[in-house]
Amino acid sequence: MSNETNNEKLVPVIRVLKEKCINCHRCIAVCPVKMCNDGSGDTISLHSELCIGCGECIRTCKHGARVGIDDFDTFIRDVKTGTRIIAVVAPAVIANFSNNYLKFNGFLKKLGVQAVFDVSFGAELTIKSYVAYKKKYNPSLIIAQPCPSLVSFIELYHPELIRYLAPADSPMGHIMKVIRKFYPQYAECKIAALSPCYSKRREFNAVGLGDYNVTFLSIQQYLEDSGDRLENYSALPYENPPAERAVMFSTPGGLMQTFARYDKNAFYSTRKIEGVPDVYQYLDRLKQFLDEQNPPCSLVDCLSCKLGCNGGAGTLTQQRYVEDIELDAEKRSHEAQAQYKQSLFSKPKLEHILDQYWDEGLFTRSYVDRSALFHTMIKKPSEEELEAAYKKLYKINEDDFLNCGACGYTNCEQMAIAIINGLNKPEHCWHYTIVQNKLNEERYQYELKTAIEKIYALTLQEINSNIKGINALLSLITEAVTHIKKSFVIIEAMVHKIRSINENVKRNAQTVIQLNTSSLEGKNQILKIGELVGKMAEQSTILIHISKIIESVSQETKVLGMNASIEAAHAGEIGKGFAVVAGEIRHLAETAGIQSREIEHSLGNIKSLIDSSLESSVYAQNQFDAIITLVNAVKNEDQIIADAVEIESNNGKQVIDALTLINQLITTIKNETTLLLNSSKTVLDNMSSLKDIH
Ligand code: SF4
Ligand code: SF4
Ligand code: SF4
Questions:
Q1: pTM of the model
Q2: Residues with Cβ within 6 A of ligand 1?
Q3: What spacing in Å lies between the alpha carbon of 689 and ligand 2's midpoint?
């Protein structure tokens, strides 16, 4: 038995799925060693070399962010590609597969595994090793070591307890060594351990045995993914001799019960303890007992998991009731014991078998002091460093040390040490968060107040300027309304005028039409007068001609009168009467001649007048034509004016409608602007009250 000191790192058996981690720190809270967790980031990360692989964080994480690492993938690949592999199956198989635990052997064989061994038999040999060790060295205390997590815990964190660790292999170590020594037919085979424990991988590395650590959980997952069930396989026995009560080794107290076969006082001298955090707290205290030279017992039967190996992180027993699990294990134990009791010489028979396989010196195991690695990685802080960390955490007074565990650590000091070692940050401390929130609140309040004051000043300026603008706008609107109203009145008057012009134009048109009619009538009358005057001129000409005839006749008559007078004169007294007549005729002729000339002269004058009337008539006719033309022109112009006036009238109406609409809109704008003004004033008032909020 030789224990060594080295810094060789433990292989990772647990990993963090960062994408699933919500940084809740529950895993730190349950972790028995804390400092393997790095909570300084946005998600947790793990320093595997400080993790003891207890798997408590897997059970605790509600987000599936913690998973175990086993060798299932390489095992299944190798066994399917013809690698010769034998399997050793942990006693916890009963807890996982209940009555089908022997069918599990059938499944493994079908898979291609060459042979299946029962680790329970290795457990029987383990107890034999303990008994031999106790007998030979009579140690004050033996700490059982089937649990690799507890071994890692002692190696890393309590190296002073290494000397109490049983210097014997675990049951798995025993059975593997038995296979290597007593089953030469499997010498070339690799060994796969079917176990409930991710941490077993480390034990295999430490003792140089075991090629694959495959958890029951991975096998179950494989069966489920393949749609397969153990019920489909035959129940096959193990290759090795059957174990007796050591089949209970996976159950808390199983080791003690097996040990009791050799030492009836075992139940009194053994301290049975399991489960996180109890077992770790117990081991923490154990040093104190030992320092006081007062070991509380002679054997510590300890397992990391609460249900023992039955509840290992690589099992599927989370879904089963404890009583069912333990009942299965008890039943198997009774059956195993019954097998040996069938013989009257049962005990000697078992011992005889064990003697065949137990070999002194074959099953010794040494341990490694790994504490140097821990001390290298986790610095023990000085008082000053602790004080500085406390200051960062706002821990000034005693009351500030809440020791509430919200950060995941047992107390504030642990958190401070984690921060000093870069494994956490103040933001994850509850007390820090409260103080920081308070400070932030004060800072926010101050910033808010400053911001409000700034906003108030700016807003006040803006609102005042707005109010000014709105007032100016209101004045402009009022002015616009006045203008619009004036325009309205003017345009209405204009439209009214246009309408009256329109009326006048219409009346004018009637007058023009009448004028036209009258002109035409006048022209016709003139034409008729012209015709009459023409006829009168003709008659005058005739009369003048008649007058000339009369004058000519009167000349001739006068000549005749003179001739008659001459003749009468010649006739003497007889001609005297005639001479008188002739004188009268001549006188008449002369008078007729004079009157005829006067008539002719008058007719001539009349004719001149008629001619002149005729000319006037033609002139008047031409004038009428000109008037008619002008009247028609006036009429056309009138029509154009009437059309234009009509259009203007319509346009005026449209302008009035538009103005009415504009007036309504402007009134609405004015109302809205007034509301805006009132709102601005209200905002101003509110701003004043806002300013008073502190
Ligand atoms: S328990 Fe740990 S691993 Fe899981 S989510 Fe919380 S911090 Fe992440
Ligand atoms: S396996 Fe155990 S020791 Fe490792 S981190 Fe999880 S709780 Fe901590
Ligand atoms: S007060 Fe902060 S540091 Fe202390 S235990 Fe609570 S959370 Fe952790």
A1: 0.69
A2: 16, 21-27, 44, 60-61, 63, 65-66
A3: 57
